[in-house]
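[step 3/7] fold_predict: job queued, chain A
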Amino acid sequence: MENILIIDDEKSLLDLLSVVLKKEGYRVKTCLAPTKVFDILENEELDLLICDIKLPQISGMEVLKYVRENRPEIPVIMITAYGSLKQAVEALKAGAIDYILKPFDVEELKIIIAQELEKRRLKEENILLKRNLQEKYSFENMIGKSKAMQEVYSLIEKSAGTDSTVLITGESGTGKEMAARALHLLSRRGENPFVSINCAALPENLLESELFGHARGSFTGAVADKKGMFEVATRGTLFLDEVGETSPWTQVKLLRALQERKIRRVGGTEEIPVDVRIIAATNLDLKQRIGEGKFREELYYRLNVIAFEMPPLRKRTEDIPLLINHFLQKYCQQMEKKMKRIAPEVFNYFEMYAWPGNVRELENVIERVVAIEDRETVTGASLPREIVFPPKKEIRQALIPPNFNLMTHLDDVSKKYIGEARMLSGGNLRKTASLLGVSYRSLRHLIDKFGLKEADRLEREEASAEYKPQL
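[step 4/7] structure written:
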């Protein structure tokens, strides 16, 4: 039951509206003394306010202004006399949803109230639905409902309860660091630091210093002792992004740190114990790198205790609408722009595009659209040319494999079902035809077409050999 507050200085009108609206199933509260209005608005749960513009002591416009500033979720209907129609227009500009003229038709008022409360209900349901969708299809800021992402969520949850080293693989832009952060937040170390370092972004000597720290005087410019990332991440998580790009020397030191749980700063002699969980990520094939002599096999097995792969966007296209909505909301809010609509054609372009840059590329496209598109609706004309007219290699193949031939595929499927039906029918062709839902003549034609006569002859010979007449 919705709660309606009516404010007017005519007691007879308040009594009439109270009786009429209560019969409609609403809870009705009336206010004859405007000085009490603000206490009611501050403390009562309300779904709709009906307020006269002309009130003693305070004006209806003051009440409207208070509601818009302090209870903006409450829709307001203003009551006005013919002489104050100009004020009614001003009230609409100030945020009132509608106005009614005195004397008014009660039936008309009931319709207006029902319509406005229905709008409010739909709006609240929409907000709740969006919140539920976000909770259902997001996981520690990761977005996706696809089977591939659900498998990732499951592995993250299972891994969170351990301190085992984790290796996350996947193409660039698939969200490997986001997965690492989710894993950290769900673990017992979640309240402690999450420290990330891109191993490919630093030269070897600087990377070693960043990871393990250095002692004062160990090299030119080392004017003081400095902690490395292993120490900074104490009792937390250290994320080694692009670990496959590290040099052989750095790999040796990483292996030692993982084995002994101790580090030595560059130029130092002291062994420093470290309590840190390692999560590593790479977009390279580490087994191939091992074969090429570019990655230490022992380090690979130390990192690969728990492993999972982040799926590329082209293999989780059902997540694209969710991601589009997420990034639209993000950048429309950041740029203080009205939420944009997406034309159906855009979803088609996005689903057929191969997304070589994965989720990161999709996010960049949405940011660009929000930044430069002035129209309310995003169409194909709003998109980068390479998405609307992609190179052949960047068109997603979906379920169609290379060198696919439809007729050959259909023949193979037909052979398979004919074979299974013959087994179920014990070789009886009329029963086989019945199981397949075709005529006996059609089945004989298919047997001839696929060269299955020899198999049919062998079956009859076997059946004849097994038959032993009783003497």
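[step 5/7] annotate
The chain has four domains: 3-130, 145-309, 315-394, 406-466.
The two ends are 90 Å apart (CA to CA).
exit 0
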